[in-house]
Amino acid sequence: xxxxxxxxxxxxxxxxxxxxxxxxxxPLTWRLRDDGQVVDLEDYQAKEGYRALxxxxxxxxxxxxxxxxxEANVRGRGGAGFSAGLKWSLTMQGGDMPRGYIVxxxxxxxxxxxxxxxxxxxxPHLLIEGMVxxxxxxxxxxxxxxxxGEYVESARVLAQALAEARDAGWLGPDVAGSGFxxxxxxxxxxxxxxxxxxxxxLNSLEGKRAxxxxxxxxxxxxxxxxxxxxxxxxxxxxxxxxxxxxxxxWYQRLSGDRTKDGGTKLYGASGLVNRPGLWxxxxxxxxxxxxxxxxxxxxxxxxxxxxxxxxxxxxxxxEHLDLPLDFDTVGKEGSRLxxxxxxxxxxxxxxxxxxxxxxxxxxxxxxGWCTPCRDxxxxxVKLLQALEQGEGEAGDIELLDKLAADCGPGLTFCAxxxxxxxxxxxxxxxxxxxxxxxxxxxRGKAPADAIPAGDP
Length: 456
What we know:
Layout: H1 8-11, H2 41-46, H3 51-59, H4 62-72, H5 84-89, E1 100-106, H6 115-122, H7 124-137, E2 140-147, H8 152-167, E3 183-188, H9 198-205, E4 229-233, H10 234-246, H11 248-253, E5 264-270, E6 277-282, H12 287-293, E7 303-307, H13 327-332, E8 341-346, H14 351-365, H15 371-388, H16 396-406, H17 416-430, H18 432-440
Helix pairs in contact: 3-7, 3-10, 4-7, 6-7, 6-8, 7-10, 14-15, 14-17, 15-16, 15-18, 16-17
Organism: Marinobacter gudaonensis
Protein name: NADH-quinone oxidoreductase subunit F
GO molecular function: 4 iron, 4 sulfur cluster binding; FMN binding; metal ion binding; NAD binding; NADH dehydrogenase (ubiquinone) activity; quinone binding
């Protein structure tokens, strides 16, 4: 049954028509309909849907799935870029091991990110097939889609697709007559950004407070309800069917000689660009190409800086636009690829206002479990508010440096605080003069010639 509902903002986010996409070059999006309607079960099966699952089940070798995924070098598309095949290979398996879980992290709350929503709302069966393949490879018999609570349309579409898959025998006992049992439950969250961290997500799934867990043990050894658990992002799982259908070599070739990272990526752009949206492109394309596809900046504005993959990544400069956007290259420049969705900052936007806005979000979304995050982020917000109003005092900027350093990797339970610190550290490094203006200005006067972040 095809959905007749429309979500006009997100239905138009993919800025590529069907004529530009094909199964050999666009494994994530080639099935999408130009009218924005849901690719239902009938349509999905007519376009190679569940064919990879049938081949894998017929071969009867779960370990081969993990081997193929490692050879393809499928890296996590949720932001960390960790090898999905390696993660699966570390899951405790064997005849004496309890059967675990596959958890899809669909808690897409990263500011500036909207790629997973497109996949779930328009192509839900691709995610379902990827999860069943993950379950077969990892000795799991049950899966959960942990969905951001605000994604009401995604929940409706996924619930319909799960029912279709059960009725057709792709979920439930004896999947496709193979003797393998696997089912999926849809779990909507209560709207907390911290649930994007995999162990906080698992606590929330179990009905507990969404605090991160100390590691080790890692979820692959002791995850949901103490059983081996694989947690992967929506886009990561959506890559699995095509890899299993066409092989690791094919997947590696998709990125060509741009990068050693295989496959394609849903890249995007938002902010003051003419055509915000998403494009499925080979891994390793440049920021310049993405901004060109977005139609450039509005009203002839000049680019000041850009975030390569959501609010928790570090700022890059215009001279970085020709770097390949892959995990390692962006990391060497002091940032992270993250979700691969660019957010632009123009010359007429205040970096101090932008950082105050971002840090307010991170401070509000802290779970409060560890001191640098719980106390340091609100303190950061107060300092930025003072600088924004021209009321900063001598030493405030140095204190911001220290607070950001105290929230760095290895000093907190999870990556929330380091994610909040990275844009602040890079903003202070590249645009320190803007922060210094907040100390010198008279009371109540904002930095000159600047508009607050987010204003049109």
